[in-house]
Amino acid sequence: MSSNDKLLPRIFKHVDENVDSYKQLLKEAVAIPSISSDAAYRDDCVRMVHWTQEKLKEVGATTELRDVGYQTIDGKQVKLPPVLVSVLGNDPKKNTICIYGHLDVQPALKSDGWLSEPFELVERDGKLFGRGSTDDKGPVLGWLHAINAYKAIGEELPVNLKFILECMEESGSEGLDELLFEKLKPEGFFDSVDYVCISDNYWLGTTKPCITYGLRGISYYFVEVECAKMDLHSGVYGGTVHEAMSDLIYLMSELVDKDGKILITDMYKSVAPMTEDEKKLYTSIDFDPVAYKTSIGAHQLAHNGVKEQLLMHRWRYPSLSLHGIEGAAFQPGAKTVIPGKVIGKFSIRIVPHQEPAEVEKLVMDYLNKKWAERGSPNKLKITAQSGRAWTEDPSHPHYQAAARAVRMIFQTEPDMSREGGSIPVTISLQEASARNVLLLPMGAGDDMAHSQNEKLNVRNYIEGIKLFAAYLHEVGLLKK
């Protein structure tokens, strides 16, 4: 047995012997309500960054808090939490991994439907319930635990590590791109980086580990319809005005059909063509449509419940969702309010080869055409904000190293999967570093990351720490 063969079992043994301490540290992290979307919790966000900085210092890393400016909330300038940048190791003979994670969380109140206080970590049935447990404090701590495991057995890390940890991901990562492209990149932060790893996503299901090589981008649209000053009584009793709400509903109803197909002209024209290798991936992925249908409480699935079609439409084809109408009367009870201005909100998840500017033009042209057909005298205004899709090559040596680590821990071949969601920082890191980026999940598909009763399975937490340790080992073996 080689020294390498002996190394990882010793690390895994140490991890198994320290489960209680790992739970305790996660409990401390969850107790800090680092809600980035609410200025009232901004001090807690800063506290969370400082808390993590101390943990990195304890493992021997050098750390720096980078100022990323201010944001405007309700007309007031509020200082953004600093971004934590850290370096551990600078051996030129070793590969260097840049690890990204976030320390902020979504809002949560027990009255939302939580079974326990969201900011008090509670263990039930082998699950650790608490806001941020899986998104993303558990995975961030997983890296620290893996580092500590190497140190505890007296072994040096097989790679150099660089960390970028922010506390605004749940609120659009404000200020991060400017830091990456205008400061860190010109300063040479990425020059020594060989690979980038993000653990801010989840297994496709609940039992089979995966490695993620693609994410959809997202385009948000705001469709504003405003009518001229109107006489309420003529609108209600005479039908003499064009109501803004009627015009908006007409436009929104022309966007997508009952099967989810986007009706916007040429929307599918530039979608990346499917290769034979990609087609094979969908066939081999462990995904049970029947179990999925049961888990979401649906009596029927789209695309006749065919596994490959379901996954393709979730990952590789664009989709459109309607989100709401601003300005309409939404309170309970009979209302005869006729709003003078309404704003409809929808989004399109875009995929590789679809550029945001191209998609925005298709949407604008289509809606303006429908508006002309409508013949309304009201005013139409359309605005958009977009982010691109991201994909990598799952046959890259970096992905194969991660796959070996998964096989070592879970004794199964990982699914190479894409995701239906968007993590905009992924493409930012890919472009800033010009390196291969990999998403290595710790959490499972039923972790309820943004919902009530968010949890992280104890098994996923502990085995995830081992996975991260094995991943560091495998990347350390890659040719420099």
UniProtKB/TrEMBL annotation:
Keywords: Hydrolase, Metal-binding, Metalloprotease, Protease. Residues 214-372 form the Peptidase M20 dimerisation domain. InterPro entries: ArgE/DapE_CS, CNDP/DUG1, Cyt/Met_Dipeptidase, Peptidase_M20, Peptidase_M20_dimer. The keyword Thylakoid does not apply. The keyword Cell wall biogenesis/degradation does not apply. Pfam families: M20_dimer, Peptidase_M20. Belongs to the peptidase M20A family. This is Peptidase M20 dimerisation domain-containing protein. It comes from Plutella xylostella (Diamondback moth). The lineage of its organism: Eukaryota, Metazoa, Ecdysozoa, Arthropoda, Hexapoda.
